[in-house]
Amino acid sequence: MASTAIPASSPSDRHWEWQYLDLMRRIWEHGDERVDRTGVGTRSVLGAQIRFDLAGGAMPLLTTKRVYWKTATREFLWFLTGDTNIRELCRQGVQIWTDWPLDHYRKTSGENLSLEDFSARIVADEAFAARWGELGPVYGKQWTDWPVYEPAGDGLYRKREHGVNQVAEVVQSLRTNPGSRRHIVEGWNVAELGQMALPPCHKTYQFHVGGNRLNCALYQRSCDVALGLPFNLWGAALFTRMLAQQCDLEPGELVWFGGDTHLYLNHADLVEAQLARTPEGGASMAILRRPESMFGYRIEDFEVRDYEPQKHIAAPVAV
């Protein structure tokens, strides 16, 4: 496929989003073509970085296509509840996680329900949701209830009723020991990966206090650049802003690191369309209320301003 020429930009006027577009071009033109878990195939590189300054309310929302930030925010708030069933997401019209349970349902039952009908049934039927909507111990479970096992005698161990709430512990450590190098939220629980519908992609968040600024480094072991990364950048920036508010700090720099960073081969139309566009403008976000804790935020607490993206580009999800 012919590569798409992109207008050159000088360092002085370089929009942050060129980092994203340059990464997309690098993968598409020079990435290794590989057979992947989904069977769709990818072009992939190992190791990538994007940096973004969150000062002044700035948020890393792409301008070369629309990013549905409310959907991404609803997903992030759902993580913080520790829920692992898609029912509440479906109730809000968020279908980010529906493809995996739906694929399992179709293969197991032989019934070829549409996504819309499956989601509606998940919402309407509690028993059906309990049977088919469970994702296993994915992000929120690990973030807020990492399992702990205690000696039970005779060489046996029992699972403690309440595990470790990593998010709450990070809030506490940021408040009481800001210079610590242990402000980490981890999703990669090796013992429970096999129980998850999808192991965590954005797996390790580390927070760093410099002066009065809260910085965040996110390591992502697997990254779908076309569909996933715009949401992942938003989520990490949102996480940082919420923590900063709770800990009386100013949002600092977001540093994103990609491990296996890839584009799916069936995203050719999206890649061509997006690489032909030029980023312009920016977006900011205000948090309109300070809840009592990290777990008290609602979707109405977030207001995005000055976001005028170019039109949405659709692409299929690889399950």
Protein traits:
disordered N terminus; 10 helices; three-stranded antiparallel β-sheet; 11 strands; Thymidylate Synthase, Chain A; alpha+beta; 2 domains; globular; 319 residues
SSE inventory with pairings:
Elements lengths: L17 H13 L1 E3 L7 E12 L4 E2 L9 H13 L5 H5 L7 H11 L5 H10 L1 H7 L6 H6 L4 E5 L2 E4 L6 H11 L7 E3 L15 E9 L2 E12 L3 H19 L3 E15 L3 H8 L7 E5 L14 E4 L14
Parallel strand pairs: 8-9
Antiparallel strand pairs: 1-2, 2-9, 3-10, 4-5, 6-7, 7-8, 10-11
Helix pairs in contact: 2-9, 5-6
Structure description:
With about 325 residues, the chain is an alpha+beta fold. It folds into 2 domains: about 15-85 and about 160-305, 2-Layer Sandwich (Thymidylate Synthase, Chain A); about 85-135, no CATH class. Helices cover about 30% and strands about 25% of the residues. The protein contains 10 helices and 11 strands. The protein has helices spanning about 20-30, 70-80, 85-90, 100-110, 115-125, 125-130, 140-145, 165-175, 230-245, 270-275; strands at about 30-35, 40-55, 60, 150-155, 155-160, 185, 200-210, 215-225, 250-265, 285, 300-305. The strands form 3 sheets. A 6-stranded mixed sheet has the order 1-2-9-8-7-6. Strand 1 (about 30-35) and strand 2 (about 40-55) form a beta hairpin. Helix 2 crosses helix 9 (about 230-245) and helix 5 (about 115-125) crosses helix 6 (about 125-130). The chain is globular and about 65 Å long. The model is unreliable at about 1-10 (pLDDT under 50).
